[in-house]
Specification:
Helix content: 10-25%
Structural class: alpha+beta
Mean pLDDT: 84
Number of helices: 3
Strand content: 15-25%
Low-confidence stretches: 96-100
Length: 174
Amino acid sequence: TYTPCSAMNVEGIDERRSNYDNAFNEHYKNTRDRTQRPVFAAGDFNIAPSEEDTTVPREMWKEIPSNKPFEKENYCKLLLQNSLVNVADSVQQTTKNLVCPERTWRKGKPGTSQYMAMRLDHVLAPKGHIDIKRSKGEPVYPNVSEFHSTRGTYGSDHNGVCFTVTSSPRLVYT
């Protein structure tokens, strides 16, 4: 998926972005309910969900896209209402990796006042459908069984997020 950015240097709720967030949330629910199967979502969500996911100072969050409070609230609503988890966050906890997940977007030169880096690209999975470290007992299928990010993907300003969904003990889709 691609979530549009909100307006730069404008405080408050961006109606276009807010409408998109609500429509995506509704589309996700409808797809899950219609198929009666776990639904995974991946792409550029244009949201840096936590303080560790952005280099933008907190005092600037209200005016910088992907950091605005209404965007963070809409993202949290998507996760909570649909029992979703961010795979990168889950991998970090599962592997006891204390380093924050890779920031997947960068702009400007590091060390300058214009430099920004954020984790904007995400893989969302239904709770209980992540089995990176191979849990004890029988895993729930389908599940995300591998996850990592890449750098320098085809000249894009985003790092790629790569993941594998295992649909049964013998079927793997990458």
